[in-house]
Amino acid sequence: MAFTLFTTSFGTCGISWNDVGFTRFLLPSETEAQTEKRMMPGGGGRLDEDEAPEWVRAAITRVRRHLDRDFQDFSDLPLDMAQITDFQDAVYKQALLIRPGYKKSYGQIAEAIGMGPEAARAVGVALATNPWPLLVPCHRVVSASDKMTGFSAPGGIRTKTRLLAIEGAELLSE
């Protein structure tokens, strides 16, 4: 498994892949060194961006465009699903249906996969372990009261709010 880091208007992101597809995507940490350190546990070697396969470079270009407000649909990207459960897969497929500028609640996602709103917490846990934040837009899932809750990427809720603001989502202030 190889990985690369790449700069965006949002900061330095990381992406790793294998022969099946993308294995991980990282939103920026405070520094590039921190992003690289978070990328390392997955193993593999770091490549310069221009050494990555064309399909990886094309995805990187799309991420940059998205973060520059030329919104992209990442649902066609190859993801290595071997590392996730069937439940996570169902949740991530629902998250992929949420367009930029829109949000759904954890309970709405639970209902969409045939579970009751009591499964909202399980949906939250699945999204917290999403290996591809932004590519699988877990930041578009909020509480039933439309509040920003939980986000496991660096910067937490602040990062989630920044991504939603970039995408033009309606945000409530208290």
Describe the 3D structure.
- With 174 residues, the protein is of the alpha+beta class.
- It folds into 2 domains: 66 residues, Double Stranded RNA Binding Domain (2-Layer Sandwich), CATH 3.30.160; 83 residues, Winged helix-like DNA-binding domain superfamily/Winged helix DNA-binding domain (Arc Repressor Mutant, subunit A, Orthogonal Bundle).
- The protein contains 6 helices and 5 strands; from the N terminus they run βββαααβααβα.
- The strands form 2 sheets. Strands 1-2-3 form a 3-stranded antiparallel beta sheet, sandwiched between helices. It has a two-stranded parallel ribbon with strand order 4-5.
- Helix 4 crosses helix 5.
- The model has no long low-confidence stretch (mean pLDDT 89).
